[in-house]
Amino acid sequence: FKVYTLLKCIKENGFLVKMFTNGIAKNRIKKLDGILDEIFISYNGNKCVLLYNQKEWKTPLTLQVIVTESEFPTFESLKDIIKEAQKTGIKVRINTLCKQQSNV
Predict the structure, then answer these.
(1) In whole angstroms, what is the distance from residue 54 CA to residue 66 CA?
(2) Within a 13 Å sphere around the CA of 58, how many CA atoms are in the beta-carbon half?
C-alpha cells in the first residue's frame, strides 16, 4: 500500500492531510505535491530548506521556526532567516520554547 494511495484515499474521505518534515528529501516530498493540504518544513539550522520556492508547489508551504537562544542568539539572526524565507514565498511560522521557572 503506497503512501500516495493512502493519502489520496484519506483526502477523498474529506480529511485534511498535512505533512511535517525537515525538508531534506525534497524529491520524495514533491511526489505528494497537490495531494497535501499543507507542508510544514522545520528549520533546524539547515539552510537547504530555503531552497524551496512556493511558486514551484501547488501545496502551501510553511517554514516552521523554533526560536531558541542557541539557534538565534540575536534578533537580527532571526530576522535574516525570516527575510530569506519570505523571498521564496513560503509562509513563516515562529514558535519559541520557554524555560519553566521553579519556585524552589
Answers:
(1) 21
(2) 9
